[in-house]
Amino acid sequence: DSINVQFFKFNLIGPALFEQPISRRLRRVSLSEIGFGKLETYIKLDKLGEGTYATVYKGRSKLTENLVALKEIRLEHEEGAPCTAIREVSLLKDLKHANIVTLHDIIHTKKSLTLVFEYLDKDLKQYLDDCGNVINIHNVKLFLFQLLRGLSYCHRRKVLHRDLKPQNLLINERGELKLADFGLARAKSIPTKTYSNEVVTLWYRPPDILLGSTNYSTHIDMWGVGCIFYEMTTGRPLFPGSTVEEELHFIFKLLGTPTEQSWSGISCNDEFVAHNYPLYRAERLSNHTPRYTTVLHVGTQLYYT
């Protein structure tokens, strides 16, 4: 799984205006301000996946002959475009970076809103599956670097991704990794702003969010980076819980059960108290990944940042 990655010059940017979440009553106005393309410009080739609100197709542009990914979002007459779609469009219009998937076009019809993205061959989960869950250390470093660079750009622009997981990291044939699926992303103006705690797939969700906190900042993404980093180095998820209780148990067993001394106010948290977790002592991450002790030094720095 040898890879040659062409690194791009990091363009520093100045302070950006804070994005604001779009309310339902502003969706129609927001959509009217966006320039739309034409559906007939693209040819659908294969279905790549389907979710509750959207279906993703592999396609081709008739204008450029380039492959594209068509994210077709079904519109409900009563609701209009889903909040996640408006949020994704609003953010991606202004996020231009080598490690963030490019939004090429937007197509609006009565029945659907189609987002046209650059096409990348696979996601990190598929990449792991294809190489037998064993990625050589060189490529782990390349992918981690690109993930951090793309995320750094987002955070400089005051944008939280909030849903980092291997399925949302796309990789092309040149080994370039790009952040995708900004449907849950949020622009943040104040680090302690109250958001929903129902974000981030369970395995990549930090303990304070699992315990009900809605006050968070960039750490929600950095926890996900650490979990993905471990998964790349070992080929298995770090905290594969099937419920919130089990997820927290996995976290505490490895990193130590929090106490009032290490986490002020934890003894008053109803979720924490209700499950009466055993008092675990923190273990060394290197004990779980003996082959990757050197690279896990980077992970330790991330953990304590």
TrEMBL record:
SUPFAM superfamilies: Protein kinase-like (PK-like)
UniProt cross-references to PROSITE patterns, sorted A to Z: PROTEIN_KINASE_ATP, PROTEIN_KINASE_DOM, PROTEIN_KINASE_ST
GO CC annotation terms, alphabetical: nucleus; synaptic vesicle
An annotated Gene Ontology molecular function: MAP kinase activity
Catalytic function, reaction form: L-threonyl-[protein] + ATP = O-phospho-L-threonyl-[protein] + ADP + H(+); L-seryl-[protein] + ATP = O-phospho-L-seryl-[protein] + ADP + H(+)
Pfam family for this entry, one: Pkinase
Swiss-Prot/TrEMBL GO biological process terms: exocytosis; neuron projection development
Amino acids binding ATP: K71
Domain Protein kinase positions: 42-305
Keywords: ATP-binding, Kinase, Nucleotide-binding, Serine/threonine-protein kinase, Transferase
PANTHER family: CELL DIVISION PROTEIN KINASE, CYCLIN-DEPENDENT KINASE 16
Family classification: Belongs to the protein kinase superfamily. CMGC Ser/Thr protein kinase family. MAP kinase subfamily.
Name of this chain's protein: Cyclin dependent kinase 16
Organism: Cyclopterus lumpus (Lumpsucker)
